[in-house]
Amino acid sequence: MDEPSAKRLRLPRWGGVVASYLIPGLGQIAEGRLVSGVAWFVGMVIGVVLVIWVAASAQFPDVTAALCLAGLLSILWICMLVHTYRVSTGLREVDANRPWIGVLLSCLIPGLGQLYGGERAWGGLFIVMTMGSGMLPKGLQMVAFYVLQVCSAMRAFRIRRWRENVDRPAVAAFVWTWVAHLLVVLLLVLGIRTFLVQPFKIPTATMEPTLRGIRRLPSGLTGIGDHVFVDKFTYRIRAPKRGDIVVFRTDKIAALVGSSSTAYYVKRIVGLPGERVSLKPPFLYINGQRVTEPPILETIQNRERGYSGYVLPSTYPPAKYLHDETDSVQLGNDEYFVLGDNSASSLDSRFWGPLQRRSIVGHLTKIYWPWDRIGIPE
After folding, report:
1. Residues 6+ away with beta carbon under 8 Å from 194
2. Domain ranges, ordered by start, for the chain
3. How far apart (Å, rounded) are the C-alpha atoms in residues 5 and 22?
4. pTM for this one?
5. Tell me, which fold does domain 199-373 have in CATH?
6. Count of alpha carbons within 13 Å of 154, Cβ hemisphere only?
7. pLDDT digits over 7-58, tens only?
């Protein structure tokens, strides 16, 4: 037996499965199967990106296609773990593999590894803490779950009757694999949010009835606003269009800097670069001609389906643009005019002027929550 093979055999068969669970293909790579390991890793990453893209894409009216792809990806993920198990040449003795099975179960749900190892008290404690983490603020839920996963997995290594079957290099390999797993997840999430899709919440009623903001229910409780996906890729290959709902940063808008804690606004584009915009309530005019396309703008102006048309700005807050029907705004080569669909309650370009292209984050494509609101807003 040569030295490279001896090193591979230090990790039991189920240890390789745990490695591939944390980083797809790592178990194959640890066995010297570089091509298949890299193929599994790249394929799973592409699969995750594709699921998220389909979930957010305006080409699919709901999330059915994304759920089907996610199901298929889950099957492929299981196949990858099975392949890892089958190609493993590591130790196959039951005693050597039980700790790793416990670790795998703890990675799935913290506490399962302890129950598998006979530590019912510890297992129950981890499961209760895992359930309790769901009550934390959303930003902390995932962090808490990760911490519980690591603690539960490390505890699985320390179960008394398993302890002598796990050597220090194996534990070190698991720790470093987990660190690499966190880095991969972090880079993937940051990459998707930066270049592809970013989720947002709608806090106000400025885009109703198209988008629903946080509201007070008859029962006295607070109803959640729409949760939406914003496509950050499309505008890299084409310019924004009239009728697009866009999310944009407010830090470059002088009239809004310091006036609100909200860093992002959501409005609809009605005026394009080089055009002249004016209002004659409830109608919108571009270059002196009433706008009729896209159809949603005609619906808003005709006060159909709960829309109230476009109105001239009220006296408060002070408006700098479109005071009356004779006013108009000439847009520059890189400027857009945006209005809220709920025109009477929207702080938009009528008050602070044209929107610079550089401030646009992306195109709002789909509502993904609450469940009864899932779909593509017009």
Report:
1. 232
2. 3-196, 199-373
3. 23
4. 0.86
5. Umud Fragment, subunit A (2.10.109)
6. 13
7. 444 678 999 999 999 999 999 999 889 999 999 999 999 999 999 999 999 8
